[in-house]
Amino acid sequence: MFLVAGIHSITTVSEVSVKAGGSISIPCLYELKYTHHVKYLCKGYNWNFCSYKVKTDRPDSSGKFSISDDKQQRIFTVTINNLMMDDTDYWCIVEINDGPDYGKYFQLSVTKGWPQLFVDHQEITGFNGEDVTIHGNYSNTGEIEWCRLGGSCVKEPSGSIDGTRVTINANVPKVFTVTMSGLRTESSGWYFCTKGLLQMPVHVTVKERPSTSKDHSTIIKCSAVNICHVQPLVKVSFIIPLSLLIFIVMVASFIWFMLRRHSKSILSFHESNHQYLDCF
């Protein structure tokens, strides 16, 4: 196996702090021309002697490694479970059929205690037009940045990435938050926070908020003594059929009343005629 350390062929994080026994997902961005190529994860510091762990066309049966390829965003993601102290040196690699493979090295700093840089969740979901906040902790030094994989970065306190407002708050020691405001569908993808020499990848998924059949609008009714009650606002689509039903019931009642009155008049007329005839 021969590899070439691609400068522009593959983009990923360089060093991630992780906790032994846990898991980590690493995104690897590749060029458009490699969309349909096989991708794989290789373990070892020297890329000439690293060992295959999982490939997009050959899953790992042990369950320690997994890989997925998002061809639309041109990112394949490798996940390493049950992290051990020797899980330190890896390569994201694109297989080239007619030449040397392209690879990019990343390092895992495995610790038995808390990682030096970590977030509450590596996967987070937000809704179109709304905000999402990523919560993180750190124990190392350096400036905090929020970057899109293969894109631009924002430094504290605020900035913009692809039209999405980004605000970084690190006023509390060893704690930080990153808020992305005005999310769009295009905001979905892999990002990472940077603190000093460490990075932590975070995947953001932006969806449409599910619509509900209930109308949560309200109206306020106030009595003469200024006591107000908030009541649900009835939909117009419901008012129209109800009004029609009431009208039909009123018409039917009126017709029934008139028919009953008419029948009583006829019966009274026949009884009068019968009494009149009896006199003869």
Automatic annotation (TrEMBL):
<dbReference type="InterPro" id="IPR036179">
    <property type="entry name" value="Ig-like_dom_sf"/>
</dbReference>
<dbReference type="GO" id="GO:0004888">
    <property type="term" value="F:transmembrane signaling receptor activity"/>
</dbReference>
<feature type="domain" description="Immunoglobulin">
    <location>
        <begin position="121"/>
        <end position="207"/>
    </location>
</feature>
<dbReference type="InterPro" id="IPR013106">
    <property type="entry name" value="Ig_V-set"/>
</dbReference>
<dbReference type="InterPro" id="IPR013783">
    <property type="entry name" value="Ig-like_fold"/>
</dbReference>
<feature type="domain" description="Immunoglobulin">
    <location>
        <begin position="13"/>
        <end position="111"/>
    </location>
</feature>
<dbReference type="GO" id="GO:0005886">
    <property type="term" value="C:plasma membrane"/>
</dbReference>
<dbReference type="Pfam" id="PF07686">
    <property type="entry name" value="V-set"/>
</dbReference>
<dbReference type="InterPro" id="IPR050671">
    <property type="entry name" value="CD300_family_receptors"/>
</dbReference>
<feature type="transmembrane region" description="Helical">
    <location>
        <begin position="238"/>
        <end position="259"/>
    </location>
</feature>
<protein>
    <recommendedName>
        <fullName>Immunoglobulin domain-containing protein</fullName>
    </recommendedName>
</protein>
<keyword id="KW-0812">Transmembrane</keyword>
<dbReference type="InterPro" id="IPR003599">
    <property type="entry name" value="Ig_sub"/>
</dbReference>
<keyword id="KW-1133">Transmembrane helix</keyword>
<keyword id="KW-0472">Membrane</keyword>
